[in-house]
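Hello Y.,

Per our agreement to keep a running log of every chain we model this quarter, I'm adding this entry. I've kept the format consistent with earlier entries: sequence first, then predicted structure.
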Amino acid sequence: MQDPVSEASRMFGERLRDARTKLGSSQEEIAHLADMHFSNYGKIERGYGNPELHTIVRLAAVLNVDAGTLLAGIGAEALPEKYRVYSAQEFVKERRKRDVRGSA
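Predicted structure for the entry above:
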C-alpha cells in the first residue's frame, strides 16, 4: 500500500473521514453530492489525493463543515520536502544578510 502524498494530505483526509462518519454517510454518497467520482473521493480521504480549492470547498459544504476546519493547523511543515516553503520573514532576513555582506 502506498504512503499518503504528505502529512498534510493524510491529516486532511482523516478530517474528511471523521466528518463523513459523523454524518453516517458512505464515501459514495459524499462523492455523489460533491459531484465527483467516488474513487477520487476515496483517494483524498486516504491521503493519496491533492484536491484543488474548489473541491475542498465543495466537500466542506457537503459535509456541513467550514473548509477552514478541515485545514486548521496544517502548516508548511506538513508538506513534502520538495515543496519547502520559505516565509517572507525568512526571505527578508536572508536578503538583509546578503546586503550587509555585499556592502562590506
